[in-house]
């Protein structure tokens, strides 16, 4: 007697559970991903064919084309230490509440004598409206004091690690004497290396760098 043939049926796979998992993962990554915050002070940096990733939570010194200097202090924990050190060494007389408010500001960009008054305002002043950290010359250069407090806050860290965290982003139309005053502030605190932030551009074909990359590719 022959074997009974079973009718063939098409396989039906329920994808509902798979779709639910996919949407849950998508929602997680959207909520968990940290977006790059907008720049407090926008400048048009020069271009460069060289590129290297900057470390997270860097100390960023920004120089505008008008010659204004602004400072971002990087890691939140270190930022509080820097501000507390500055308050102590320069006798700013800031209360704990004022120190906490200053630590929440995205960028430092005012003379030391204006800090207390600005913190007392009910509304936050946009960075573009701030006067900037004075760096006019070697005598009136408050960036020296800020860099000193940064060095104090990073005690115990190697100098090389600290220098890797210091970035300088200057507008391509900024004048060199102003840039030189920033270098003076770093040099005054025994910091001789820092990174320049530039916009990337493609390597010109036929250039020495292009030929060098072609040789290393083989």
**Which regions are unreliable across 5 or more consecutive residues at pLDDT < 50?**
none
Number of helices: 8
* Mean pLDDT across every amino acid position: 82
- Name the helicity range: 25-40%
Q: What is the count of structural domains?
A: 1
Tell me the β content: 5-15%
Biggest sheet strand order reads: 3-2-4-5
Spell out the helices and strands N to C.
Answer: HEEEHHHHHEHEEH
> What spatial form do the alpha-carbon principal axes imply?
elongated
Q: How does this model look, in words?
A:
The structure is a single chain. The chain has 218 residues and is α/β, with parallel strands linked by helices. It has one domain. Strand 2 and strand 3 form a beta hairpin. Helix 2 crosses helix 3, helix 2 crosses helix 5 and helix 5 runs parallel beside helix 7. The mean pLDDT is 82.
Concise summary:
With 218 residues, the protein is of the alpha/beta class.
Question: Main traits of this protein?
Answer:
single chain, alpha/beta, 4-stranded mixed β-sheet, two-stranded parallel sheet
Summarize the SSE layout with pairings:
Layout: H1 16-32, E1 47-48, E2 59-63, E3 69-72, H2 76-89, H3 96-104, H4 115-119, H5 143-153, H6 159-165, E4 166-170, H7 176-188, E5 195-196, E6 199-200, H8 208-217
Parallel strand pairs: 1-6, 2-4, 4-5
Antiparallel strand pairs: 2-3
Helix pairs in contact: 2-3, 2-5, 5-7
């Amino acid at each position: 007697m022959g074997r009974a043939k079973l009718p063939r049926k098409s396989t039906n796979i329920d994808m509902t559970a798979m779709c639910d998992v996919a949407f849950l993962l998508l929602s997680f990554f959207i909520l968990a991903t940290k977006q790059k915050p907008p720049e407090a002070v926008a400048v048009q940096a020069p271009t460069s064919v060289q590129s290297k990733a900057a470390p997270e939570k860097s100390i960023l010194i920004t120089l505008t084309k008008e010659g204004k200097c602004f400072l971002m202090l990087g890691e939140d924990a270190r930022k509080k230490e820097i501000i507390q050190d500055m308050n102590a060494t320069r006798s700013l007389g800031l209360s704990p509440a004022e120190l906490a408010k200053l630590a929440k500001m995205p960028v430092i960009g005012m003379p030391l004598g204006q800090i207390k008054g600005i913190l007392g305002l009910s509304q936050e002043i946009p960075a573009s409206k701030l006067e900037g950290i004075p760096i006019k010359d070697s005598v009136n250069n408050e960036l020296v004091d800020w860099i000193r407090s940064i060095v104090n806050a990073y005690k115990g860290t190697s100098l090389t690690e600290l220098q890797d965290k210091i970035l300088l982003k200057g507008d391509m139309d900024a004048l060199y004497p102003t840039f030189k005053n920033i270098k003076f502030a770093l040099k005054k605190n025994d910091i001789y290396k820092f990174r320049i932030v530039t916009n990337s551009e493609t390597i010109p074909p036929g250039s020495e760098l292009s030929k060098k990359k072609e040789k290393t590719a083989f």
